[in-house]
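Aim 2 progress update. The chain analyzed this quarter is reproduced below.
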Amino acid sequence: MMENNDIFEKKDDQTPQGQCSTNTSGCGCGCGLPKGWIFMMFGIVLVVILFNQSSSSPGVQWQNDLKAGLEQAKAEDKPVLLSFSASWCGYCDKMKKKVYNNEEVLKLSENFIPVQLDYDINKEEVQNYKVDGVPDYFVLGADGTVVSHFTGYREAQDFADKLKNALTKSEKKE
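Predicted structure tokens:
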């Protein structure tokens, strides 16, 4: 009778269990994968993770409470950047992915109190500001009056220009 450790001892005409006799350049287990495949797979996973992190940088830090945003605007003497968005809006998603994380847009957003409201949830504000499509943007003075208004998808540079223009208008109003 064979002892348990005998299965791991190589006999002249046998291949030890867990090793591949036909795959001399492979991983050694008989699966046929090339040496280093685990490192290659790890590298691919790492690249995917890093790519996803870089494409989903934090972006503009939106609040979702207009009343609190207006109070903060008064306290910090900043205008409010009010955005109306919706989960089903393709252009809203595109703005999130391509514009709100743009370096210039992020820097400019520091001059505002950014508030983003959901078009489907915040019906009272949608009616008050006469929003009939998304994305829709309003720059409000700290007192809540509309200083600037623009709608639709904007490339990052165009959006930054709109913010600069609104900031100038806001400063003149004060």
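The helical segments are 37-55, 66-76, 90-98, 103-109, 123-128, 156-173. The radius of gyration is 29 Å. These observations will guide the mutagenesis experiments scheduled for the next reporting period.
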